[in-house]
Structures are given as structure tokens and as C-alpha cells.
Prior knowledge:
Keywords: Cell membrane, Membrane, Transmembrane, Transmembrane helix, Transport
Membrane topology: Multi-pass membrane protein
Largest sheet: 5 strands, antiparallel
GO molecular function, one term: antiporter activity
Protein name: MatE efflux family protein
Strand content: 5-15%
Number of domains: 2
Organism: Methanobrevibacter ruminantium (strain ATCC 35063 / DSM 1093 / JCM 13430 / OCM 146 / M1)
Strand order of the largest sheet: 3-4-5-7-6
Oligomer: single chain
Amino acid sequence: xxxxxxxxxxxxxxxxxxxxxxxxxxxxxxxxxxxxxxxxxxxxxxxxxxxxxxxxxxxxxxxxxxxxxxxxxxxxxxxxxxxxxxxxxxxxxxxxxxxxxxxxxxxxxxxxxxxxxxxxxxxxxxxxxxxxxxxxxxxxxxxxxxxxxxxxxxxxxxxxxxxxxxxxxxxxxxxxxxxxxxxxxxxxxxxxxxxxxxxxxxxxxxxxxxxxxxxxxxxxxxxxxxxxxxxxxxxxxxxxxxxxxxxxxxxxxxxxxxxxxxxxxxxxxxxxxxxxxxxxxxxxxxxxxxxxxxxxxxxxxxxxxxxxxxxxxxxxxxxxxxxxxxxxxxxxxxxxxxxxxxxxxxxxxxxxxxxxxxxxxxxxxxxxxxxxxxxxxxxxxxxxxxxxxxxxxxxxxxxxxxxxxxxxxxxxxxxxxxxxxxxxxxxxxxxxxxxxxxxxxxxxxxxxxxxxxxxxxxxxxxxxxxxxxxxxxxxxxxxxxxxxxxxxxxxxxxxxxxxxxxxxxxxxxxxxxxxxxxxxxxxxxxxxxxxxxxxxxxx
Length: 539
């Protein structure tokens, strides 16, 4: 969520202390900035999904393997990015086609920006793993600290020392460098579960595992790739038609999207961490609860932000000194129309990361290609002869709507071919009815008797129920009753799987693993919770 703040802050300070040509330079460089998010999603998202799936399967070695693979690939790629940026600096800048007024600022801003790229990439990927390793507050804190330093230095370098636009990129570089140093605390934390296993990683295995990570992370990463192409093409259009003013308007539109993305992408990316665990365990009851609440929250936020920009666009424009320009009507109209994209964006983005979490790459790919590239370009081309430059701003909401319609049609086609699943979220038919959820607050909780009665109705033998009672008793006794145990019970017919999660001491899992049959008990740590699975053969 916090990674978007740097772009917003830099744009506001640059437009305030330097001017609109400098702000236009930031929009010219935006495709390169977005390019970095591709690698954060490619290795961060793809790596964490595979690592979490291994955790859900109680494979700690496999989980560490994908963590190590993802981080090593990120480091190698980051070094290559740095070399390419400096060796081909002039070619990269010429490729972006900056206007004459923006070119000096692009040249001044880019050196520190290039150095920031590998730092931000490594930090972004690592923080994704820290977040899903039961330390989301620390992961967010690191990025927040980096951005606070960036904000303070932006003011000092631009407003006090008048260092020019290069001061803004220097502030960002220092902020993210400090953030990366802060992550050292995680590496020395005894509670972390992701660990480097470089000694066990062979070159061939690393290449194969990196390819696996890329396959899983590609739909999310391709969103960044297509966004880079789209922003690049739209920069050429608005820059060619309106000059620096067009780039300034588009930059404010991108900033508005980044602001709402702080909420939308925050919730959506969180789904990619939680969904693999619950989906792998067929916990569709809790999965439905999480997805429903996430969609409701993001839609409400989107509606509020859209309404604000429709009613009072100057509330955003004033931060970029665009609320009193000679073309203020054109600027306000662009912001109002563009803001209509936020509501369909919220829903399509939630679907995208949900499909990522359950490894439905075709569905997530459909959303990505249409919403981030083909949709906006198609509608711009279609509508430009009729409404001119307004077609650019209108193409974004229409593109998101088209992506939702297209993926809904595709899912219907898949549903007809594969009757095992139903609905947009691929819920397994009939399994919810065979699922029970219980929450115990003590080992003598009345809910436990209700659960045991249900097991007896499924013809479970007394010895299995007694074993389950002992496991529950061990959890509460070892934590002095100061835990809640969430229990998922699923009847598969040939077997009954009972999954228990609690927030207690991790040492308890070792005691359970030693005290009970290894054929029936599996333990792991997922999302900061102790995870115990007890298997009962079907009656």
C-alpha cells in the first residue's frame, strides 16, 4: 500500500517548487517507474504464492526453496537493471520522447532514479515475503519509514536547499536505501519462517524454479508490463495533442489512480497472500467471507473517492497548481471522467489477484490484457474521431468494465466444461455443505461438544474423537487457555480433515508433532498462525 506514496509526493513537491515542465518530466519517466513494479510482482507475488502453497502442504523445505529462489532472482535482475539504465541512458530517454520543455528535467532526475530501481525492487519483493511471514506491520512500517524520509528530504532538498529536480530523486533513493537497511531486523528475527538455503540451491534447479515463479507471477506482472506500454502510448498522444499541459493532466490522473490504489491494491494484494492458504485447504466458508468483505470495503472507498473528484476536482488539482490554469475547465473535465474508472477498477483488481492466488492464470491474464492495455487503446481509437482528447480519459473506465464482462463470459464457458466448480470464484460444488467451522475459546467450550456430536453423526470412532480432544487440550494447556482455536472440519467421504489454527506459542506444534501419529498429524506455520491438520479415515 505504501509503495505508491513516493510517486505522489514527488509529483506534488516538484510541481510546487519547480514547475509544470518538471512535473511533465515525471510523467515522461513514469513508464520506467512502472517497469520496476513488473519485477516486484513477478518475483514477489509469484514467489510468495508458491512458498505459501508449500506451507499449506506442510513442506517447510519447499517453502524456503522458493523464497531463496525468488530473492536470488531479484538480486541478479536488479544488478542487470542498474547496468542497463546507465549504459543505455540516452537511448532510454530518447525512447520516451520527452518534450523540449521537459527534457532537461528528465536528464537531471534520472541518475538517482536509476540507482533507486534495484533498491526499490529488492525492498518490494522482500517486504512481500515479510508481510506473509506473520509480520505485516513490520513490512508496512519499513515502507512507511522510507516514505517519511522521502517526504522530509523532498521538502529540505527542494524547498530549503533549492537543489532542483535531482533533489527529489535523491530523496527517494535515500529513503528506500534506509528502508532496505531496516529489513536487516527481519533476517536476525528468530521467529521468521522464511530462510535462505543457498547451499542447497543448484544452478539448474534455480533456473527451473525461477521459471515456475515467473509463470505464477506473470499475470500480475504483465499488468505492470501492459501498463508501461499503455502509459507510454498515452504519453505520446496527450503530449502530442496538448504538449506539457497534457502530460501534467495525465500525471494528475495517474496520481489519482495511485491514491485510490493505496486502498484497492492493498486489499487485493493481501488476497494473494491469504487466498492460496484457504483455497488449498478448501475452506470456502472463510474464503467467501474474506473476499466479500474485501470487495465491499474497496467498492465503498472507490465510490467515496470518485464522488469527491466528481464534485470537487480542485481538491486534488490544487496540490499540483493546476486548479487555476487558463485551461482549468479542460483539466477538471479530464479528472472527473477519469475518476469513473475507480469503481470498476476495484472489482477487476480484486478478481485479478484472487485468480492469481488460486493459480488461474488465464482468467487473471484476460483481466490484465484488457483492462491495462487493449481496452483503453481500443476505446481511444474508437472514440477519438467523435470526442477528441476526451476519449483518452473515458477509455480507462470503459477498459475496466470490458475486462469484467470478458472474464465473466470466459468463466461461464469454463463452468460448462468443468462442472466441479461454480461461479466467478471457482468454488467446488457441494463442499460448503460438507464443511463446518468452529471457534473454541477454551478447552471446555460448549462448541467442542457440538463438534464432537457432528463427528459422531459422521460415524467417526471414539478413539479418533479422543485423539482430537487431546490435541485441543494440548493447545490450550500449553498456552494457559489464552488462545482462540479456529477449526475447519471437512467431510470428503473417504476421509475427514480437521484443520486447527491458533495464535499461540509455536513450540506447542513441536509437542503435538512428537506426541501424536505422524501419519495423521501435520503441523506448519502459516500467516503467523500455528496450523495443525488432523486426518481421520472415512467411516
